[in-house]
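User: quick one, sequence for these tokens?
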């Protein structure tokens, strides 16, 4: 590197997770899944001053995304009235 050249390197990571995705009064906890994901970015910028009026800029970047779904149960997920009253409403909402 010199006073006429500049190199910049950047990197970002965005991890995220959700436990029991899809949980509701009409879905058993075993029918949900845990989601984990991460987004990654890396970039490089190289600038070279060629003369008083010209600058050469070269940029390169890469993006990656990964998602993992881990089911909380086994087998096929089925809609279930477990935890619901006779009206299909959760008992906490006054259904008896």
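Assistant:
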């Amino acid at each position: 590197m010199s006073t006429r050249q500049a190199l910049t390197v950047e990197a970002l990571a965005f991890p995220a997770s959700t436990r029991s995705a899809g949980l509701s009064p009409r879905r058993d906890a075993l029918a949900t899944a845990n989601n984990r994901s991460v987004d990654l970015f890396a970039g490089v910028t190289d600038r070279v001053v060629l003369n008083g009026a010209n600058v050469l800029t070269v940029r390169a970047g890469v993006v990656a995304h990964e998602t993992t779904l881990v089911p909380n149960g086994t087998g096929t997920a089925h809609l279930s009235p477990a935890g619901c009253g006779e009206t299909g409403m959760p008992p906490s909402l006054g259904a008896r």
